[in-house]
Amino acid sequence: MAVDIVTFGCRLNAFEAEVIRGKAEGAGLSDTIVINSCAVTNEAVAQARQSIRKLKRERPEARIVVTGCAAQTQAAMFAGMAEVDRVVGNDDKMRSEAWQQTRDAFDIGASEKIAVSDIMSVREMAPHLVDGFATGLPRVFVQVQNGCDHRCTFCIIPFGRGNSRSVPMGAVVEQVRALAERGHAEIVLTGVDLTSYGADLPGAPKLGMLTKQILRHVPELKRLRISSIDSIEADSDLLDAITEDARLMPHLHLSLQSGDDLILKRMKRRHLRHDAIAFCNQVRRLRPDVAFGADIIAGFPTETEEMFSRSLDLVEECGLTFLHVFPYSPRPGTPAARMPQVAGGVIKERAKRLRAVGDAALRQRLQAEIGATRDVLIESEGQGRTEHYLPVAIADERVGSIVPVMIAGSDGERLTV
To answer: What are phi and psi of 71, to 5 degrees?
Structure first.
């Protein structure tokens, strides 16, 4: 049996899952399940543990290897699970030798489970061109950056991913070209702290320069999309690209986290409320049809009802369409975990209200699309997405094709044609 990957968390994990599959199978592993874990919330860690137990019941003979951010930050906990055979570090998982060592350990019945190196010592990043993406798969990811040099008080991810490091521009361009030539219509640039791209490279190129280089040197690329960014770090070249090239999709997902200035300061974020609103207004002037998404945390320590109301109001003031709501979850070892906590019931109630506001904002945007002509990327039979990442119910079986359609209506969750 082949290597099966179960992935939790971010788009970067989804990309890395394909790298892991290739390297693990190349090392000769079989009948192995790899849990590629996430550490962003306590719930994400609990989901990984539940999955491990369930999979072991279903496939008792399979080896189970745990990797990812939760494995990096809580290796001993996973190693203590009877169902787990090996714990591989977050940088190690991208290296062929780690999977060869895993196979060797299985062959000799080694008792040591943990193979996790010091993530903070990693300073460089090798490009990984994924061969496992099926030809014609509509949307694929390219990892251009990893790690984070910032220390937001709620976040454990820098300790799971290490310091910020970037893939050289030339290597990124070559990856994008190769994927475009294979027939992938849309490529998404992804990373942990994407707008910090290039600070560790010679000449310190920024994300905007990388974006322009891709668009300039890969004319056959149909669509380029950028995953989550920190708006305060968005550079002028990135804004130029948004304005000048229609192949750069008019959809940006922002790491906002809160709409209240005092909470943002306690989070140790680098922007304030007015910065977020000003950025959205600026981009909307450059690309009037742009759609914004955002991460927002509900119930951060010390958050009062008045503070929370500013996050609710931010949805309208920034004109957000997609909301990714995180009920605050204290991560061990982070400064926020030591701050006065909001009651769990209050956190859940605020998250519910925030999601309701987000759902209403999405419905409003869907309604506003009626009558417009949009270019829809067919993702699967019956499902596509517009340039703005809005889902479309469409009876077109040409998966991977981009087709112009007139938007006829909305069912409240998707556009219809």
So the answer is: -65, -35
Model's pTM, two decimal places?
Answer: 0.89
> What 3-state class would DSSP assign to 214?
helix
Which long-range contacts link 132-137 to residues 24+ away (Cβ below 8 Å)? Answer: 132/18, 132/21, 132/22, 133/18, 133/179, 133/182, 133/184, 135/182, 135/183, 136/182, 136/183, 136/184, 136/399, 136/400, 137/184, 137/400
What residues pair up with 226 in beta bridges, in sequence order? 189
Listed residue (98, 206, 90) closest to 156, CA to CA:
90
Q: How many CB atoms within 10 Å of residue 26?
A: 12
Per-residue pLDDT of the chain (417 residues; tens, 9 = 90+): 689 999 998 878 888 888 898 899 999 999 999 999 999 888 999 999 999 999 999 999 999 999 999 999 999 999 999 999 999 999 899 889 999 999 999 988 888 899 998 888 887 776 665 555 545 589 999 999 999 999 999 999 999 999 999 999 999 999 999 999 999 999 999 999 999 999 999 999 999 999 999 999 999 999 999 989 999 999 999 999 999 999 999 999 999 999 999 999 999 999 999 999 999 999 999 999 999 999 999 999 999 999 999 999 999 999 999 999 999 999 988 999 999 999 999 999 999 999 999 999 999 999 999 999 999 999 988 899 999 999 999 988 789 999 999 999 999 899 999
- Strands laid side by side in the 114-115 sheet: 3-7, 32-37, 63-68, 86-88, 114-115
Inter-residue contact 276 to 254 (CB < 8 Å): yes
Q: Residue 250 gets which letter from DSSP?
A: S
